[in-house]
Amino acid sequence: MKFVIIGCGRVGAGLAQTLVSRGHSVVVIDKDPLAFEKLGGKFKGSTILGVGFDREILLNADIKHADGLAAVTSSDEVNVVAARIARDIFHVPRVVARLFDHRQAELYKRLGLQTIAPTGWGIHRIADLLLYSNLDTVYSLGSEDAELVETEVPPLLVGKTVRDLTVIGEIHVVSITRSNKTFLPTQGTLFREGDVLHLAVLMASIDRLKELVGE
User: Fold this and answer.
1) Within this chain, do residues 27 and 50 fall inside the same structural domain, yes or no?
2) Domain span at residue 22?
C-alpha cells in the first residue's frame, strides 16, 4: 500500500518508519529539510520538501494513487486543510489528521474527518487507522482507553450470533443497523449480510477484535 505523511516530527517520522517496516511505500512531506534527519539514513521511503497542502507537492507525492494520508504537523490548521484536500479533492480512502485543540474535534468529526489527539494515541494506533479500512473509529470514550467502532459485518460472521463477537469486559456489540433501521441486539441476535455494527472495544483489545472479524 502507498501512504503520504505530512509532517516529519517525532510522530511523522515514527509513523513513516513503522509503515515502511510493515512493507508499505511511504512519502514524507515537510517544509523543513532538517526534519528528514529524524528518519535516519536507512529509511527506504521517499521525502519531498514543501508545504503539505500545496497541490503540486501532493501531486509529486503521487497522492492520486495513495491508499492513505496522515497529516501530523504541529499545526491544526495545516493538518485539517491537508486532510480535507486529500479526502475531498483527491479522494484518498483513508485520511487521519492530528489535532491539538480538543474543542474542535467534534466539528471535524461532523465534517467526516478522522482526527487523533496527541495524548492517548500512539504511532502504531495511527498506522492501524490508515491500514485497517473495515474498522472505523466513530468516537473515543472517556480517557481514550475505549472506542466506539463501526464496521460492516464480515462474511465469516454472517449467520452467527452477537455472542460470537462478544468478549466480556473487552468487546460488546452496542447496536446493529439493518435496512436503514438501528436496534439494540441481544446475545442471541443473528448477524445478517449487510449489517452495520457499532461495537464498544477497549484499545488494548483492538487486535483481538481484528482477529474475530477476520482482519
Assistant:
1) yes
2) 2-133
The residues, any chain, with a CB within 8 Å of residue 103's CB and separated by 6 or more, are none
Q: How many domains does the chain have?
A: 2
Dump pLDDT digits (tens) for 116-162: 665 445 565 676 667 655 666 556 665 557 878 888 898 889 999 99
Return the closest-CA partner of residue 145 out of 205, 198, 103. 205
Measured torsion, CA atoms of residues 152, 158, 162, 166, in degrees rounded to the nearest 10: -70
Burial of 29 (0-12, 13-18, 19+ CB in 10 A): buried
Cα 95 to Cα 47: distance, rounded to the nearest angstrom:
19
Q: Is residue 64 a part of any domain in this protein? A: yes
74 lies in the same domain as 17: yes
Residue 48 near residue 12, CB atoms below 8 Å: no
Virtual torsion, Cα 175, 181, 185, 190, nearest 10 deg: -110
Supply 50's cell numbers: 514543501
